[in-house]
Each structure stands twice: as structure tokens, then as C-alpha cells.
Write a structure and sequence with these properties.
Largest sheet: 3 strands, antiparallel
Radius of gyration: 15 Å
Structural class: alpha+beta
Order of helices and strands: HHEEHHEEHE
Length: about 100
């Protein structure tokens, strides 16, 4: 869902990402966990992301991530088994004191 939204491409579904992960890592095929979703590991692999989705990823501190979001980029993180996206808010909400959305 994160890649689909980030790239504005509804054709990128969890099944598509799992198939991409299985093609990239042919010796490991349990990237989908029924009832839970897709394993997040591929979202941290720049080579995988560039090859299949033409995006980049890098590790940053929480403070750096917030700064990147305030500069218009998207931050992706994980909290106790969940993947979260932190995205910029539209300008009309910035004037109300909002800095970002957490999804």
C-alpha cells in the first residue's frame, strides 16, 4: 500500500510486491503472512526498490525523518510489527499547526 500510494499506482498491490520480492530473493518465499500482510524487509533494500519501483530508501534518525517530511518527502518506519508512513500535510493544514500525517 505504501508503494502504491507513494507512486500513485493502484496496480502495485501486496500480491505484486510479494511476487517482486520472490523474484528478487528466489531462495526465500515467505514474504506474505496470511492475516498480517507483506514482510517489510524489501522496503529497506535500495537495490530491490530501484529495480522494481524506481525509488530509493535510506535509514535516518527520527528527527531526520521528520525534517525530510517537512521538506516534502515521505518517511516509512516500523513500530512493533507495523509499517507506518509519515507524509507531508497540504499547505492549508500547515497554517493550523499540523506538520505531518501518520498512516
Amino acid at each position: 500500500m505504501l508503494l502504491s500510494g507513494l507512486l500513485d499506482n493502484p496496480m502495485i498491490t501486496p500480491d505484486v510486491v510479494v511476487k517482486s520480492l520472490e523474484a528478487y530473493y528466489p531462495s526465500y518465499t515467505s514474504y506474505y503472512r496470511p492475516g498480517s500482510g507483506t514482510v517489510y524487509g524489501g522496503l529497506l533494500n535500495n537495490n530491490f526498490l530501484q529495480k522494481y519501483y524506481n525509488v530509493k530508501s535510506r535509514s535516518v534518525t527520527t528527527e531526520q525523518g521528520i525534517q525530510e517530511v517537512e521538506n516534502g518527502k515521505v518517511a516509512i518506519g516500523r513500530v512493533e510489527g507495523h509499517i507506518i508512513a509519515i507524509v507531508p500535510v497540504p499547505e492549508k493544514y500547515q497554517g493550523q499547526g499540523y506538520r505531518f500525517y501518520i498512516m
